[in-house]
Amino acid sequence: MDRALYVAMTGATQTMRAQAVNNNNIANASTLGFRAEIAALQSDAVNGPGQPTRVNAVAVETGWDSSSGALVQTGNPLDVAMRDNSWLGVQAPDGTEAYTRAGDLRVNALGQLQTGAGHLVLGDGGPISIPPNSSVNIGADGTLSIVPLGQDPATMASVGRLKVVDADPTQLQRGSDGLMRAVPGATLNPSSGNAVSSGVLESSNVNLPQTMVNMIGLARQFELQVKMMKTIEDNATAAQSVMRMS
């Protein structure tokens, strides 16, 4: 069998993988704080006997887009957006500490502060609990203050502080659950100063028009590779016919 068939097959398989990454970005175009994944195809020479004339295409994940998404004013005091390179600490489903840019916070039935996705929000001492109150305020440094239920607004009290850390893209890696975690050996320092804006949410940073163009390009590339496999099959059939005639 012509080895070119394997080259075309490998290219089609890797194009499908790149398309899966691209489609995941499209699916999360409206997910708060989402960072687009980046995948690219690179050449990989086929090793072995014969001339080095064939090259495989290999899909490689080159990381994620660290640019910020657009900020949307909501007026909700529990909605927060972090400044560039700052991340909100949350408790992942497996109990580990993770980080997100999704700041759509809410208080659950147990009085715990959580994100819209259901992840508990961390403070300096673990998950944050909010006592019964008539109003909640989040300061620019992440401090949570409430007016206790039935009390005068002048009795506002602090009940905790959001865990917000500074991290550049090289210090974080994306988990299978979509949350970010520190790479092994990295130390993330707490954010200082005004790292939080209240009443604001950060949207996804997916460039939807460009992502749609990528989807079309990958689909055409896959179609070309399938046509190549069909051409190789036709050539093999023709060669077998010639040999039978001879």
Automatic annotation (TrEMBL):
Record domain Flagellar basal-body/hook protein C-terminal: where: 198-239
SUPFAM superfamilies on file: Flagellar hook protein flgE
Q: What does the entry list under GO cellular component?
A: bacterial-type flagellum basal body, rod
InterPro entries according to UniProt: Flag_bb_rod_N, Flagellar_FlgE/F/G, Flg_bb/hook_C_dom, FlgE/F/G-like, LlgE_F_G-like_D1
Domain Flagellar hook protein FlgE/F/G-like D1, first and last residues per copy: 85-145
Protein's cellular compartments: Bacterial flagellum basal body
Of which family is this protein a member?
Answer: Belongs to the flagella basal body rod proteins family.
Stated name of the protein: Flagellar basal-body rod protein FlgF
Q: Give the species this sequence originates from.
A: Stenotrophobium rhamnosiphilum
